[in-house]
Sequence to fold (199 residues):
Amino acid sequence: MENNIENICVFCGSSEDLVQEYYSTANKLGELIVENNYGLIHGGGIIGLMGALTKGAASKNGKIIGVVPEFLNRPNIANSNNQELVITKDMKERKEFMRQNACAFIALPGGFGTLEEVAEVITLKQLKYHSKQIIFINTLNYYDKLLDFFEELYDQNFANLNYKKLYKIVNTPEQAIEQIKNYQFENIYDKYLGFGNVR
Fold:
């Protein structure tokens, strides 16, 4: 596997009790990441959407890096089959590794962990710690209510309307890959940070 290609980081759920379309979408995303000459970096799991995502990328002989905290490095959760497995001390170190080694972030549907991970990369982009693309894949309208809540943030002035430019919403893996391939960073003005220096 090539080591010099860029990696797309995917956040997603580990549940195995979902409607089949969620798994099919994750599998397709894994395939497309590799077909478009990217590597995959993800939370290291072999179950749920993470498992489907990894299988898709592995079916195309892609570069796959799974990142798992040592507490979760268990046979029924993560293993090194079809992927390079990176073991971190804790969740904080795991997320930092994923952020530093990715060129873009995609959020598939997921639970609290997925929401926390994608909210953090949005916040860090807002604070100009990075300039990478962030995409929600809104499979089966999963994120509609969250996006409605985002509108409350804007409507009640808890967030600047410009922050809508920090992320993109798409419906399919194909659209997500196209967004990443055509991404051009826009430095967003912040009333406290100005345009600042993106780190």
The radius of gyration is 16 Å. The chain is about 35% helix and 15% strand.
